[in-house]
């Protein structure tokens, strides 16, 4: 901070020195040119005439008054003149100093008005110019991100509303057939009942996504930390997701170095792992293995989820932790949720003081979670 203000302080000091030198020079000129120089006699003659004509003094009395008032108090008058001169020059200089505040105020106004113009300040305020432009860029990016997230949310709500009609129409259709065809064969009834149940599950999933959007907008993350056995949590996670792994011939392998204990919110951390694991299952190849590993590195615990599948494009990889962003752009796929799972996981980990990231190539995709021990 001291270095940032260095140029400004140097310029102000130079201006103050300039003011003092200028005042001394002008005072010198006034003293030796006007008071002791060419104007001394004319001023004395004018003052004596003024005393004779206006004050009705004789010549000797007027001359004596001039000597007492001016000649004997020359230094006092000079000091008074210099003080007045200094005040005038200082006022002019102060007006120049306040220009800096006016320029900074103008820059702040441009921030509040969301102006498209770049903020420009004098060279001695270059550090302030950079900071204001940095804040301006961040605010513009946040506004753009918020607008894009809102647009994605609105699009998603429209898509979900449209998608709800499909399973609902099927449910009504199959139930109508079951109601109308009383003599329908048992095998066909079972088939229609199975289809109706599947469509009902899909409808429930879509409705839950609507609620998830609302919860995400309203909730604030409050942590309730406790000691957690990470080994047990990840092993339990792999077991619980077996019904999702089995249909595609997938399996999960948990590899943990030693016994790992962390201090965190168990419920919220489980939600993080659930969201990452569900994403890994959805985008893994059939008959592939999802590797889950954990280890302590200094004061951090690092958990990784590695799956084999199609690589995530770099432009999408940068956005997967944003609100309402779905990796699968097809709105009607079973894997395409509300686009909140990874965004929620990211916010929970950040609330714990950790971080979450992802890398992807043609061989595998790796999600890495770093969280402090306590």
Automatic annotation (TrEMBL):
Superkingdom of origin: Bacteria
Transmembrane segments: 12-30, 76-94
Domain Histidine kinase residues, every copy: 159-374
UniProt entry tagged with the keyword ATP-binding: yes
UniProt cross-references to Gene3D superfamilies, sorted A to Z: 1.10.287.130, Histidine kinase-like ATPase, C-terminal domain (3.30.565.10)
EC assignment: 2.7.13.3
Matching Pfam families: HATPase_c, HisKA
Recorded coiled-coil stretches: 129-156
Subcellular location: Membrane
Family annotation (InterPro entries): BphY/WalK/GraS-like, HATPase_C_sf, HATPase_dom, His_kinase_dom, HisK_dim/P_dom, HisK_dim/P_sf, Sig_transdc_His_kin-like_C
Entry keyword Phosphoprotein: yes
Catalyses which reaction(s): ATP + protein L-histidine = ADP + protein N-phospho-L-histidine
Keywords: ATP-binding, Coiled coil, Kinase, Membrane, Nucleotide-binding, Phosphoprotein, Transferase, Transmembrane, Transmembrane helix, Two-component regulatory system
Gene Ontology molecular function terms on file: protein histidine kinase activity
PROSITE patterns documented for this protein: HIS_KIN
Protein name: histidine kinase
């Amino acid at each position: 901070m001291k270095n940032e203000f260095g140029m400004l302080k140097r310029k102000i000091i130079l201006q103050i020195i300039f003011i003092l030198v200028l005042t001394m020079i002008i005072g010198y000129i006034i003293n030796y040119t006007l008071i002791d120089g060419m104007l001394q006699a004319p001023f004395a003659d004018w003052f004596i005439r003024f005393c004779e004509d206006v004050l009705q003094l004789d010549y000797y009395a007027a001359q004596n008054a001039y000597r007492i008032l001016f000649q004997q108090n020359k230094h006092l008058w000079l000091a008074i003149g210099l003080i007045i001169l200094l005040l005038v020059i200082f006022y002019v200089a102060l007006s120049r100093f306040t220009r800096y505040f006016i320029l900074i105020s103008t820059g702040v106004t441009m921030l509040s008005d969301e102006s498209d113009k770049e903020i420009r300040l004098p060279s001695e305020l270059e550090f302030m110019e950079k900071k204001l432009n940095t804040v301006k860029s961040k605010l513009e990016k946040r506004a753009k991100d918020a607008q894009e997230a809102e647009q994605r949310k609105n699009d998603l709500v429209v898509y979900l509303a449209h998608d709800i009609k499909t399973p609902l129409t099927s449910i009504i259709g199959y139930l109508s057939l079951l109601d109308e065809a009383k003599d329908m064969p048992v095998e066909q009834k079972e088939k229609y009942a199975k289809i109706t149940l599947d469509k009902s599950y899909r409808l429930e999933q879509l409705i839950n996504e609507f609620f998830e959007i609302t919860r995400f907008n309203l909730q604030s993350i409050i942590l309730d930390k406790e000691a957690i056995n990470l080994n047990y949590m990840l092993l339990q996670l792999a077991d619980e997701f077996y019904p999702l792994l089995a249909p595609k011939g997938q399996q999960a392998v948990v590899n943990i170095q030693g016994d790992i204990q962390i201090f965190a919110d168990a419920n919220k951390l489980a939600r993080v792992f659930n969201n990452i694991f569900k994403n890994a299952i959805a985008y893994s190849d059939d008959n592939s293995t999802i590797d889950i590993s954990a280890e302590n590195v200094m004061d951090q615990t690092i958990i990784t989820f590695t799956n084999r599948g199609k690589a995530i494009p770099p432009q999408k990889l940068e956005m997967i932790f944003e609100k309402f962003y779905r990796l699968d752009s097809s709105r009607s796929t079973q894997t395409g949720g509300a686009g909140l799972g990874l965004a929620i996981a990211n916010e929970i980990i950040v609330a714990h003081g950790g971080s979450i990231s992802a890398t992807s190539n043609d061989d595998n995709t790796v999600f890495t979670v770093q969280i402090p021990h306590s």
